[in-house]
Structures are given as structure tokens and as C-alpha cells.
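The data are quoted verbatim here:
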Amino acid sequence: MRKQRFVTKTSSDELKKLSGSDLVTAINALKSNVKGNFDQTFECQVSLKLPPKSKNEVVRFSAMVPHSFTKEAKVLVLTDAQNSDIAKKAGADFVGLDDLVEKLMNGWVDFDVAIATPSVMPKIAKLGKVLGPKGLMPSPKNETVTEDLEKVIKNYKGGKMDFKMNETGLLSFKFGKMSMTEEELKENFDFIYDILQQEASKYGNNVIRKVFIKTTMSPSIKTAI
């Protein structure tokens, strides 16, 4: 099967000339020039550099954007029988413990987010080897280890997204679809970026170095924020 390629009214070199543009100019350039036969996603890539004293830290946060654009998340809940009914009623797609742990250890990952109650954490610790590298291991840092299953499940079903800086200092986030308006895209971007700035400021000044935006199949544009 031949890979799809992005098609532009202008060349990729011309798009690159927009380097340093403000956010709205960059969004409009991508909306006007990048074409395809599917609704491409807008993405942002942020280069971060933490000070030496924080070299073992990572910037991470969660957000629910004003204009939802993602499909409803598939939620897996690892919990005991006592909490299973609560999870099911709240809309979890998969609920269980021993049976699901076995499936997960065998490589099954047909879900978007995993949530666990604190009482089962000792039983699922071994899943860190398989879920950790995929960013799916339940963690108190993003509330996926919780006693309040109903609230957390509904948040993720409602569009909550988690973001985390990788080992190279890059943090990526999606903020909308090509079919959305410029205003909706900007509002989503600003909402996520404001939280990122708050989290990054905890580590000092000038943590955010470079910001690029792109669509699924377009070149990236360095953006002045």
C-alpha cells in the first residue's frame, strides 16, 4: 500500500519561509495550503530545557480543551470486585483485575487510558514493564490511580488528555482538526499552552526554547509565541 503524501498549493520550502510567524498566521497557512483526503490533526512540538538541578524531572500535565476533537477514549479499569460496578456504570470499557493483567502481560493494549484503584497497585506493579514504555501505566500524577473512579473515568471519556516531556526534552500535544475554525484551534492551543507555561515555570525561566506546529502530514513551522 502506497503511503499518502501531503499536497500543498505551495512548496514545503515556501511554508518553511513562515518560520517565526505568529500562531494565527501559521495556522492559516497550514489550513490554506495543506490538503489531503482526511481530516488532518494539528500538532504542536515544544522543545524544553530544564536546568541541571532538575535534569531528572519531567514536565507533565493534563488538560480538557474547550473544543473537543478526539474520539471517545477507551478506558480500562484495574480494580477489585467491590469497585467493578462503579467503574462499569461510569462508562469504563474494560473492567477487571487478574484476567486483564494476564492479557496486558501478553501484549494486549486495545485501549487509550488505564486507571487503577490504590488497593490493587501491588498486584499490577509488574505491568510497569509493558505499560510504562507506552505511557499507559496508571499513576497518581495524572489521577489514573484514584479512589474516585466515577470522576476520573468521566473526565477521560469527556476528552481529558495527558502530556509528558520525553527523554530528549520534547513535549508534543495535539490541539485540533483541519475542519475546525481558526478561532477554535487557537483557543485549544492557548488553553494547553497556558498550562504548559505554568508547569514549565516551576523549573525556572526560559525553559521553553522552541515551538513548532504542523498537521499530520505537513512540514512543521517554527512559531513565535
Remarks:
- The first helix runs from residue 12 to 16.
